[in-house]
Design goal:
It is built from 8 helices and 4 strands; from the N terminus they run H-H-H-H-H-H-H-E-H-E-E-E. By secondary structure, it is α+β, with helices and mostly antiparallel strands. The chain is extended and about 65 Å long.
């Protein structure tokens, strides 16, 4: 425990404390499996059940009893999820074999040059459209604002100092304002 009384406990230590064991996985494998699961949607509620509801429905408090109860309620869920994820792992293995130095360089150029340029021009175009519709003054976000998910701000009109921040997602711009987003003179 540190001087401040704060201590750290790893997720592996928590698993061991709650379940009694922790299954070690080789480096990078869980990242790959998470990506495959995300793409295959292997652990979606329609496959494994709505886990938050199931854990609350379970009358038992120990892991062993929970596992037995779950497997009785959803007898094919683990196998069904495994099959979906395995299929995606196989797809990913095939895709990895196609990746070479030139593809990596092309991907980096596309991300850094093309998508950055298009993305920022896209944001500016949306902000400009709002500017014309609302008769406002807009600006793109600062790096600090961008790190908070803000893409730009506009001033409602000359009589307001309050900024209205924008978050652009796909074809939509989410407009919001809050007390901590006040425009300062000269900004």
């Amino acid at each position: 425990m540190s001087k401040s009384g704060v201590f750290r406990i790893s997720s592996e230590e928590l698993k061991e404390e709650i379940v009694g064991e922790s299954k070690p996985f080789p480096k990078y494998t869980t990242q790959i499996l998470n990506l495959c699961n995300q793409n295959a949607q292997g652990t979606r509620p329609q496959v494994v059940g709505q886990m938050t509801e199931l854990i609350q429905e379970c009358p038992y408090k120990s892991y062993t009893e929970w596992e037995k109860w779950y497997r009785t309620r959803k007898p094919s869920a683990i196998v069904d999820a495994t099959v979906k994820i395995k299929r995606m792992v196989d797809n990913l293995k095939g895709a990895i074999e196609l990746i070479d130095d030139q593809m990596i360089r092309s991907w980096v150029e596309d991300l850094v040059l093309v998508k950055t340029f298009v993305g920022l021009r896209f944001q500016a175009a949306i902000l400009s459209k709002i500017d014309k519709m609302k008769r406002t003054t807009f600006r793109l976000a600062t790096p600090t604002e961008e790190s908070k998910g803000i893409d730009g701000s506009y001033r409602r009109n000359a009589g307001f100092d309050k900024a209205v921040d924008l978050q652009i997602q796909g074809k939509f711009a989410r407009i919001y304002s809050s007390p901590d987003h006040l425009l300062h003179k000269g900004r």
